[in-house]
Amino acid sequence: MELKERVKPVRSILVSQPKPKDDKSPYYKLAEKFGIKIDFRPFIQVDPVDVKEFRKQKVNFLDYTAVIFTSRNAVDHYFSMCKEVKVEVPADMKYFCISEQTANYLQKYITIRKRKIFTGQRTPADLIEVLKKHPSEKYLFPCSNIRKDDIPTFLEANNFTFSEVVLYKTVASDLSDLADIKYDVIAFFSPSGINSLFVNFPDFEQNNTRIAAFGPTTAKAVKEAGLILDIEAPLPNAPSMTGALEVYIKKANNL
Fold it and tell me: At what angle do helices 124-131 and 150-157 cross, to 10 degrees?
């Protein structure tokens, strides 16, 4: 079936992310504007690695002079594991954070003004530029079992002293209660979300369900799973998922 034949009216959307806490979320505005139902359900969840599994990695937190944080999850699980194994983080530990938001989140655990914190703008490439200025540190990179290669590849290629430590895992959520519920559109934001779909529903058949994907890696995962990608974001005229959905809805609902 060609994509144009799949452009059918949209009355319901399942967003594979947690429900927004902000009442002003663009998803709520989209639902109100077009009179459609939008539900939220995270397809993946983050589980901590237990102490036994951590110890198998043979990483001693006190062997490092700097920690690289690429997410709030990494911050939470690093300090949580430090507490579990009764390690007091040295006051002179340096922190390299992917963004200002991640750096600010550190205040949940430390007094920021007394620490050495270095931040990138937003992307791994930005943070790499910061790391280049500090080649002599001994870096610890707390991460998930699923992570991007950019930073470890850079550190290795440039002979930095570093270790990765997996402190949390991205796993499929239990979606069994959705077995008999159908949506016109399901929106995905990561390859892990696609994986979760098939972990929960190995015999999933797309039929008339439209699939929306955010980002090239998610789009690739959709196609590799044998699904039809109906809505792709970001688009030049729609930089967000809600923007891409709106473009599709206007076309599909003849608005």
Answer: 30
**Interhelix angle for 191-200 vs 216-224, to 10°?**
30
Residues 124, 151 contacting (CB under 8 angstroms) = yes
Which residue in 122, 74, 68, 71 sits closest to 95, CA to CA? 68
The 10s digit of each residue's pLDDT in 99-118 is 989 999 999 998 777 669 88
Predicted TM-score (pTM) of this structure: 0.75
The total number of residues shown for the chain amounts to 255
Integer CA distances (angstroms), 251 to 39, 88, 219, in order: 21, 57, 21
Contact present, 212 and 231 (Cβ < 8 Å)? yes
- Indicate if the alpha-carbon torsion angle 51, 54, 58, 64 is positive or negative: negative
Task: Dig out the tokens for 115 from the structure.
Answer: 């620490």
Backbone angles phi, psi at 51, to 5 degrees: -60, -40
Q: pLDDT, tens digit, for every residue of 33-60?
A: 999 999 999 999 999 999 999 999 999 9
**CA 37 from centroid of its chain's CA atoms:** 24
Distance CA 146, CA 49 (A): 13
> Two tokens at 38?
């939008």
**Which domains does the chain possess?**
63-171 (3.40.50.10090)
Whether 186 contacts 211, CB under 8 Å: yes
Find the angle CA(237)-CA(241)-CA(242) to the nearest 5 degrees: 85
6 and 208 Cβ atoms separated by less than 8 Å: yes
- Tell me the HSE value of 157 on the side-chain side, using a 13 A CA sphere: 9
> How far is C-alpha 1 from the chain's CA centre?
32
Largest CA-CA distance found in the chain, in angstroms, rounded: 62
